[in-house]
Design brief:
By secondary structure, the protein is of the alpha/beta class. It has five domains: 10-112, Nucleotidyltransferase, domain 5 (2-Layer Sandwich); 125-176, no CATH class; 208-401, Rossmann fold, CATH 3.40.50.300; 408-571, Rossmann fold (3-Layer(aba) Sandwich); 583-637, no CATH class. Helices cover 37% and strands 22% of the residues. The chain contains 23 helices and 27 strands. Strands 5-4-3-2-1-6-7 form a seven-stranded mixed beta sheet. Strands 10-18-25-22-19-21-20 form a seven-stranded mixed beta sheet, with helices on both faces. 46% of the residues are buried. Mean pLDDT is 88; it is low at 1-5 and 301-307.
Length: 638
Amino acid sequence: MSQQVADVDTLFLHEAGDDYTVVVRRDGERLLRGRLELKETGAGPRPGRFRVKDGDDEVPRRPEQFIEMARRAARIRISEQTSRGKRGELEAMLDGYQLDAKQVRTCRICANKGRYSPLTTETAIKSDDEHICPDCAKRELEREANYRGLQSGARDRLEDLLLEVGDLERVANLLSGQLDPELTKFDEISATTDDIDLVSTRDIDVHSDLKSNLQRFDELLPVQSLAVENGLLEGRDQLVVSATATGKTLVGELAGIDRALKGEGKMLFLVPLVALANQKYGDFQDEYGDRLDITLRVGASRIRDDGNRFDPSADVIVGTYEGIDHSLRTGKDLGDIGTVVIDEVHNLGEDERGHRLDGLITRLKHYCETNDQDTQWVYLSATVGNAIELAGQLGAQLIEFEERPVPIERHVTFADGSEKVDIENTLVKRAFDSKSSKGYRGQTIIFTNSRRRCHEVSRRLEYDSAPYHAGLDHGQRNRVERQFGDQDLAAVVTTAALAAGVDFPASQVIFDSLAMGIEWLSVQEFEQMLGRAGRPDYHDTGTVYVLVEPDTTYHNSMEMSEDEVAFKLLKGEMEPVITRYDETFAIEETLANITVAGKRAKHLNDRMIGEVPTKHAVGKLLEYEFIDGFEPTALGRA
């Protein structure tokens, strides 16, 4: 025992029922934990019984051994949580041996478990009406996180917040969807402006009709100015990479509309989605319909709702990738193509769509070269992780502009599926009830993972809103777009149809789900979607809310849960755009290239961005009787 009590740093006492917990520490480690009973004597309170914990047992020791330890201790501390009467009793006992003690603020949970955890202003964590140590607070938070099924990335986030704000209840409330802005705020993407010499709209050499359209602006936007300064109007092929709402679309128009007006070939403006094609078609009709013939090509059939047939001889063809590719594969004569604009070219990296876009670009280039056309190619994207490499593969000059027109605040909170709509309702109302310095109400885009959920969320919002997805007809989508533009709607609830760039001037984006269908979002898709928040002509800042349902997946094929995906996306780096071919994709594109180019199909395969195993694909096509030599059979053509 004499060795045990030598060089004691601290002897700590804490009320435990009628007795006292005793903790002895040396060199930062607990040396022993015991239990002390006091007895009343004529000289005042004195040690009665003293027992030391040994595993699950309590071993009796002589009361004098407690006094010996107290005398050898460098300091004696009594917890503040010990009641006033009990503190007085301890102090009177120690006075009897000429020993001094100080009261200290400690963690009650630790003290009850025989641990000495003094608290300072910096370390104390508020818990209900008391303060506890960070370790105990983390354990309490861990219990709540376990109950919710929270995964590691989200747990790390909550622990960081706990130490930052020092309030267990506030942080735990995040798990039930509380919107404490100090806690939900994950980060802020600052507005950035590069020092670009802007091109005056008076100075650009374009057709007079296009120039008159541009006169409402004094200068081109920075990314547009960069493109023009680097040869856009001289026919240079360009890959333009810039954030959402920085004016990329006009880069394609400057090249294509100018050439169409001058009679130097038509413009093809190609997009990934029908909703996007419908909107661009409407925009071009409004802007240039009185001077140019404009037609629409989506899928493999004509648009029936307004009676417009696809006219391959039109000056401007707006189409989906699949729509134009179908025209090529069925031998349509698209006439003299002066300009091809491929919007959202990062779709080359998509699992299902990438190979088809790769094939379309290759087949379209073959068409233009075969017909001896001097075609300019303009590729547009907001999100490319390997922009220099992709520009080289496309044979285009890279125009990269990283400006963020307005800052974006990104927020994260946790909620289950039923709580999410209540939170969304609060956020939509909060945004719509406010106005920017430009005089516009805040409006919201809510992204979710299914058409059914679009309708469910929209029905439950108190302010006027509308679902918006590819299942609506052209007229319905137009009506929603017009109502949102006129600020008659506080929110639209949508699937991926909007992510690709349908032009809604929203100040706020809410992720009701981080899945699209049965797939988790990629970093590119996530960045593209959150980039819809905040427009320089409308808003002072953009706001993004990610509503995370812990331990949730939307299909049994999903390996990660939504809370894991959330922090991967928020911290993620942009993935490179790489087109990958499996056997099925290789067979599909090789057959399409044979249908379009016959014996030249191998040359087309070789110039695709992805690596196509041509020999294997041709062998399979022969085996399936899709081709005979380098001609498609009737089955293959079908």
